[in-house]
Amino acid sequence: MTTENYVKDGDVRHDRWRITAGRCETYGQLFPLDDIMAAYRRALPADLAEREVEALQAHRDVPVARYVPRPADLLDAKRSLSGLTLGHPVEITVMGILRAAGRREPAVPPRCHHDGPHMRLRAMPSEIAVNLLAFVRRHWAEEFSGATVDSVEDLVRRDYVLEVAYRRHLGTPGHQFAGCLDVEAHQYLCCLLRGNGREPQELHYDSVKSGRDGFAA
């Protein structure tokens, strides 16, 4: 517990307290470090990932309370460690790491627009289905011209084409703005991908790790 000076109405006050608290358990006891390290390896290029994972591994047997008397030390720590200590989600920390390294950041996909089970294509409003069909046609690879997607029924029968189209969309320079779906359709698309067992955030990470424009197989 420390006091802080501050100015109020032109007077210097001394009655503000800063209280820092931390758990006495170690990082390894409090957090699923193996899962978190695997998430960083999936989300980051190898050179960046290993540095972040190394910091987490080195703290497996370190009490979180170590930083209570020295919270400023977290400013010099790897972002994976400071983010974990301060409660930041991995995907947010990943974007900070990429930004600091001058790498391309993955855009965060929208959340699904509902709280129930992920939507299936047959349950979508027709205008959304038509919008997604147009999206797929824009991003369907020319080399797949022998297997064209001509109708919503094609999307229902071959729902994998949504992932193919979305990957190509992510590989397009400036994809966040050029030819992007409106928010509602994008929500449905992310929902459909999740319903098919594919997490859109992982596809965004894949597009960053590929390090090149174009379709990542």
Report on the structure:
With about 220 residues, the chain is mainly alpha-helical. The protein is built from ten helices and two strands, in the order ββαααααααααα. A two-stranded antiparallel ribbon has the order 1-2. Helix 2 packs antiparallel against helix 3 and helix 6 packs across helix 9.
Low-pLDDT segments: 212-217
Oligomer: single chain
Structural class: mainly alpha
Strand content: 5-15%
Quick one: how many beta strands? 2
SS element count, helices: 10
Largest beta sheet, briefly? 2 strands, antiparallel
Radius of gyration, rounded?
Answer: 23 Å
Helix content: 40-55%
Taken from the alpha-carbon principal axes, the silhouette is elongated
Average pLDDT across residues? 79
Strand order of the largest sheet: 1-2
* Helix-strand pattern: EEHHHHHHHHHH
Distance between the termini: 54 Å
Offer a concise description of the structure:
The chain is mainly α and 217 residues long. Helices cover 47% and strands 7% of the residues. It has helices at residues 27-30, 33-43, 46-58, 79-86, 90-100, 126-139, 152-157, 160-170, 183-195, 200-210, and strands spanning 2-8, 11-18.
